[in-house]
């Protein structure tokens, strides 16, 4: 008899308890020993097997005074019942792990500057506690992360200078200074801290606004506030390309202090004397999502607990106190 045919006479969903009783009896082929293994009274085991047979519409055992044997239907059901029970156990463990925050999926958006030190720091700490939670990472602009959070496309955002948004919770992680990036040996190296007035007629390369709108607007605001209309040499889509242009001596640029942690030959970071307010990097999440995900709650708690270890003045991650 085909396995599918075993269920043709079923009057309802199979009970896992009945399947477990069936497997033990099939392995012992003895009602008394099976009942002992299951810690059941023998009449209770007999009723359970009879109920399963009625649900399936077929006999699973041949019974006599001398022996108990599997029918062809019982022999076909045995490996399938073992698979079903094993899957049920795996599913139960998975759900328990998810409830504890030990399994599941976290989708994390991040801006490129956080990938240098902040994001690895948080991921390493989280992985040490929850090694089986799957992580999906996506580099996105701050504006794109806000939209993705609201649409439920990501669970967490490492975001810069985010304004208050209904249903989105934020926790400030660090503040960063705007620094000037120049070719090594540039004349400005001898004039630190650099004033914006010294950048007149200096070629500047910037990240495109659609890549980093907050950074782009902040740089322009700094320049215009100090009477400087920047001479834009070019605008690029990638911070690595900015480093390359500056290292080649073609222009200078502005980047936040976290980028200074990525050592690059041929470039030097210089402090600005009259910069405007620092930029704030925050962890953001949707309130409703956090209530439904223990893993997400754990990551948030970890980041909040780690905040005192962050040197907000420089954007550096300290080694502890």
In the CATH hierarchy, the third-tier topology of the largest domain is known as D-Maltodextrin-Binding Protein, domain 2
User: What is the name of the CATH class of the largest domain?
Assistant: Alpha Beta
Percentage of β-strand residues = 15-25%
Principal-axes geometry comes out as: rod-shaped
The number of helices is 10
Count the E strands: 14
Q: CATH architecture of the largest domain, please?
A: 3-Layer(aba) Sandwich
Our count of domains comes out at 3
Helix content: 25-40%
Run of helices and strands: HHHEEHEHEHEEEEHEHEEEHHEE
Query: Superfamily at the CATH H level of the largest domain?
Result: Periplasmic binding protein-like II
| Spatial ordering of strands, largest sheet | 4-3-5-12-6
What is the terminal separation in angstroms?
A: 70 Å
Radius of gyration: 32 Å
Mean pLDDT: 85
Q: Residue ranges: pLDDT <50 for 5 or more in a row?
A: 1-11, 309-321
Q: What's the story with the biggest beta sheet? A: 5 strands, mixed
SS class: alpha/beta
Output the keywords:
321 residues; alpha/beta; Arc Repressor Mutant, subunit A; D-Maltodextrin-Binding Protein, domain 2; 3 domains; five-stranded mixed β-sheet; three-stranded antiparallel β-sheet; 10 helices
């Amino acid at each position: 008899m085909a396995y599918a045919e075993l269920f043709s006479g079923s009057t309802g969903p199979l009970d896992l308890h009945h399947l477990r009783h069936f497997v033990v009896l099939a392995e012992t082929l003895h009602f008394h020993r099976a009942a002992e293994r299951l810690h059941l009274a023998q009449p209770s085991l007999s009723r359970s097997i009879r109920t399963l047979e009625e649900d399936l519409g077929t006999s699973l055992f041949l019974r006599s005074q001398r022996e108990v044997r599997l029918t062809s239907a019982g022999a076909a059901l045995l490996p399938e019942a073992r698979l079903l029970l094993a899957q049920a156990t795996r599913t139960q463990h998975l759900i328990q792990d998810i409830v504890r925050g030990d399994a599941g999926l976290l989708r994390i958006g991040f801006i490129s500057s956080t990938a240098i030190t902040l994001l690895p720091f948080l991921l390493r700490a989280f992985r040490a506690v929850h090694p089986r939670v799957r992580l999906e990472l996506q580099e996105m602009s701050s504006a794109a992360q806000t939209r993705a959070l609201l649409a439920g496309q990501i669970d967490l955002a490492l975001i810069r200078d985010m304004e208050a948004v209904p249903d989105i919770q934020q926790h400030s992680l660090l503040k960063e200074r705007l620094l000037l990036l120049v070719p090594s040996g540039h004349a400005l190296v001898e004039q630190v801290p650099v004033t914006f007035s010294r950048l007149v007629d200096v070629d500047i390369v910037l990240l495109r606004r659609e890549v980093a709108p907050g950074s782009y607007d902040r740089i322009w605001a700094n320049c215009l506030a100090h009477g400087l209309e920047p001479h834009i040499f070019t605008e690029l889509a990638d911070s690595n390309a900015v480093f390359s242009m500056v290292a080649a001596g073609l222009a200078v640029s502005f980047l936040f202090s976290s980028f200074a942690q990525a050592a690059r030959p041929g470039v030097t970071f210089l402090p600005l004397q009259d910069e405007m307010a620092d930029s704030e990097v925050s962890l953001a999440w949707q309130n409703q999502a956090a209530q439904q995900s223990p893993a997400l709650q754990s990551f948030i708690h970890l980041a909040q607990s780690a905040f005192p270890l962050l040197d907000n003045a420089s954007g550096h991650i300290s080694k502890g106190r």
